[in-house]
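User: Um, what's this?
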Amino acid sequence: MALFFDHQWYDARLGERGLDRLALAAAAGLSPEDLDLVFKDQREIGPDELAVFAEMVGVSREEAARRAGVGGHAAPADPADRRVALLEARVAALEAQVAGLLARFRSS
């Protein structure tokens, strides 16, 4: 179990990028409920999930791990899996941005 998950930092970083927890969950392949458990330190974050978290908030994997309260025991992700996870994170971020733009356009 993580020692300390800095959910305020993650929420702030996501907000800076126009994203939210739902976008992070989708990109990482987690249900919103599983992501809530991660944010409450009740579920361990896996290496591939950590790679997606790092990409979504725009920091190094090491910084994402530190803010998630995990360290050396979070083994590096397989390079091919990591690349796919990063691409999926980018697609999810773009989808979230497009959805936000559409919502603003429809409301005006």
Observations:
- Helices lie at 7-16, 21-28, 32-39, 47-57, 61-68, 79-107.
- The CA atoms of residues 20 and 60 lie 19 Å apart.
- The mean pLDDT is 85.
- Residues 7-107 form one domain.
